[in-house]
Amino acid sequence: MAEPSTAIHGVxxxxxxxxxxxxxxxxQQAKKIxxxxxxxxxxxxxxxxxxxxxxxxxxxxxxxxxxxxxxxxLKLAARDAVLQLKSGVxxxxxxxxxxxxxxxxxxxxxxxxxxxxxxxxxxxxxxxxKDLEIMVAEALFEDVKIDQALKDRGKEQILALSGDMxxxxxxxxPSSDVQGGVSVKLAGEDLKxxxxxxxxxxxxxxxxxxxxxxxLAGEEG
Length: 221
Prior knowledge:
The protein is α+β, with helices and mostly antiparallel strands. The chain is 71% helix and 10% strand. The chain has a domain at 106-210: hypothetical protein PF0899 fold (2-Layer Sandwich). Strands 2-1-3-4 form a four-stranded mixed sheet. The model has no long low-confidence stretch (mean pLDDT 77).
């Protein structure tokens, strides 16, 4: 009777051992699966975080680039606006100077004074008794309601000049090229003295514009 009991006991031990080994192996497999799953999840999270950081950095760089481009565009627009404004102000200033000079140099008294100076002894010495052609604005003669022949004979009278005020060889010539002031040509010589409104305006603007621009820029008080 002892042998069957021993055999049964041995079978039970084998069953218990197989069971224990199966449980241990199952637990080990489960732990391995869980560890692999954990590692895979960590890898997925790390990859997702890296991709998110890269996208964030790219978006930040694009935003900064757009902001920089927008700022540069604003600076350029502001600079162009200032340059256009400055150019417009300078142009208006130059036009104002030209209007003032033209207004001043169309005054008959001024032109009469210039003609008398040119007819004086000092001018006579400089020109060595050569004939002078003095071009004056046609507009000075347009308000004279007389025929052309009488107008040609009366140029001196239009400027309130008598014959004895002018030396011989001085001729007053109405010219469409002259708006104000006078232009003097020495007969037989390639010499011209430009005292017209344009020449005087150009001289004044050349002298005054740089300082005017400096004042606009705040460089001068």
